[in-house]
Amino acid sequence: MLLSSLVAQASPLSEQQVKQLQGLVSQLNPIQQAWVSGYLAASAQLAGQSVAVAPSAVAAPAATLTVLYGSQTGNAKHVAQDLGKAASGKGFTVKVQDLAEYKAANLKNERFLVIVTSTYGEGEPPENAISFYNFLFSKKAPQLPELRYAVLGLGDTSYEFFCKTAQDFDQRLAELGGKAIIARADLDVDYGTAAANWQQQLITTLEPEFAQAPAATADVISWPGVSQTAAAESSYSKQQPFSAELYTNQKITGRDSSKDVRHIEISLAGSGLRYQPGDALGVYFSNDPQLVKELLLLTGIAANTPVLLGTERLTISDALTEQLELTQSYPAFVDKYAKASGSEVLQALVADKTALRSYLSERQIIDIVREHPALISAQQLVDALRKQQPRLYSIASSQAEVEDEVHLTVGVVRYEAYGKPHLGGASGFLAERLAEGGSIKVFVETNNNFRLPENDDTPVIMIGPGTGIAPFRAFLQERDVRAASGKNWLFFGNPHFTQDFLYQVELQNYLKQGLLTRLDVAFSRDTAEKVYVQHKLLKHGAEVWQWLEQGAHLYICGDGARMAKDVHQALLTIVQQQGGKDEKAAQQYLDQLRIAKRYQKDVY
């Protein structure tokens, strides 16, 4: 209709040009029309023309691809960011956002949605995805007949509830009327290639529906949690780690302790790497040479045998030492090794998932091969193993305090099993195989879902038994440097006072100077009845409630399988008893704290 009146309105176009334009526009959808409109306007501006477009002639805005991520350790975040960059490069208008930052009320307005998520614990959503997950499965969730969506799950097949959160999101979005753009993918730890392939399939499928906007206006990308300043200062990352120097490796548990905990100090001098209290340090490590030697002996492979790892050709010895996982076991290894070795016992085990999971929970890779030695080829062994993943450790220092250093609190995984000593991969490397002055590859993993309050007057309650004290050492250093006036209350627990009181002198000094307002400790093996941090919380429930009502922020760090759940239950009890609420109202109270970022967890 608009074009038919152009000639009558003294259009600068000739009658023939109008007819040609009518023919073109009739073949275009609204998104393509928007692109043509923008292209013509930009061309006219480059030619020095002043262009006025009547409001009625402006086509509908280009569609937006919203990419949300639920991430416990940062992997889902990185995959989402990579997807955002790739889609933006194709001219898509893209928004990439942390699920914790996303306003669930906006879901009804989305037309193209991607969720990249990990799964935590027993099939639970990662911490930053809990609020959105609860909304989606509540009665408040809207019908979504216009939504087209895609879900990508990251997980670990070692766990029973592999990628369950992704499966839940996929099922629920479909129930609400959404239509899948492409099929969900559930990816294991070594997800790189598969994630890239899924990303390419998604973009190719969506390309016809997204206009190629002018480069200057194509991107609308929001990446909360990614510091542009930090990115400019350092080029080091998970893909390109920094080769740092180990300054200090100090055992901080007693001679008779059942635990071996190390205080580790690493130099970041010259890296430009920046971190905040609450962030984690990613650590790459080398496997034990003796473990590599034994594995090759059991499989009858010569150390200098060449193998292909992806597109890289190297010796089997180098591949096993530097690039492949030899400690954490997983179902895919048993399956592939069973086929390569011809072991009927292992093949039968693979068929019984429950039995296989139990078997793997007690064994490292070397234990499996020790029990079922076989002569296989070097390439078969490489193909059975997955790429080594860096380990993440909560940072135990404030950069404002230690400057070009980063400190860690590392619990060494050390135990006897099947008549042999066992060590953790990264913790064993840090504790025994890396000498002071040695080199270690590291990167910073930001965690914006575990942050001190911006207002230094705000009180904080920190619950960190064992090595869970690490980020709270960083919190206290930071608040000390900032001369923060907010009160600080720490709950710490471990087996024995004399053997396991980590950072005892530092904490007592903070008490003396007044930075640490309260310190409550639970040494579970020093009393006839075991006392843990959750018991201390309950004992001081009235004061905990008072702090919360005064606006305190609450933090938990440490074991997620048991401790964090026990502490959460203790908090529910406190809210019920002290706040006069029933169980449902108490849960809603804690949910509101979480939404307000006043209840944060860093659990593993």
TrEMBL record:
InterPro entries: CysJ (IPR010199), CysJ-like_FAD-binding (IPR003097), FAD-bd_FR_type (IPR017927), Flavdoxin-like (IPR001094), Flavodoxin/NO_synth (IPR008254), Flavoprot_Pyr_Nucl_cyt_Rdtase (IPR001709), Flavoprotein-like_sf (IPR029039), FNR_nucleotide-bd (IPR039261). FAD binds at residues 327, 391-394, 409-411, 415, 424-427, 604. GO terms for molecular function: flavin adenine dinucleotide binding; FMN binding; sulfite reductase (NADPH) activity. Pathway: Sulfur metabolism; hydrogen sulfide biosynthesis; hydrogen sulfide from sulfite (NADPH route): step 1/1. Alpha(8)-beta(8). The alpha component is a flavoprotein, the beta component is a hemoprotein. It catalyses: hydrogen sulfide + 3 NADP(+) + 3 H2O = sulfite + 3 NADPH + 4 H(+). Binds 1 FAD per subunit. The lineage of its organism: Bacteria, Pseudomonadati, Pseudomonadota, Gammaproteobacteria, Alteromonadales. GO terms for biological process: cysteine biosynthetic process; hydrogen sulfide biosynthetic process. Its EC number is 1.8.1.2. CDD domains: SiR (cd06199). One of its GO terms (cellular component) is cytosol. This is Sulfite reductase [NADPH] flavoprotein alpha-component. Its cofactor is FAD; FMN. PROSITE patterns: FAD_FR, FLAVODOXIN_LIKE. Keywords: Amino-acid biosynthesis, Cysteine biosynthesis, Electron transport, FAD, Flavoprotein, FMN, NADP, Oxidoreductase, Transport. NADP(+) binds at residues 524-525, 530-534, 566. Residues 65-203 form the Flavodoxin-like domain. It is an enzyme of class 1 (oxidoreductase). FMN binds at residues 71-76, 118-121, 154-163. Component of the sulfite reductase complex that catalyzes the 6-electron reduction of sulfite to sulfide. This is one of several activities required for the biosynthesis of L-cysteine from sulfate. The flavoprotein component catalyzes the electron flow from NADPH -> FAD -> FMN to the hemoprotein component. Residues 239-453 form the FAD-binding FR-type domain.
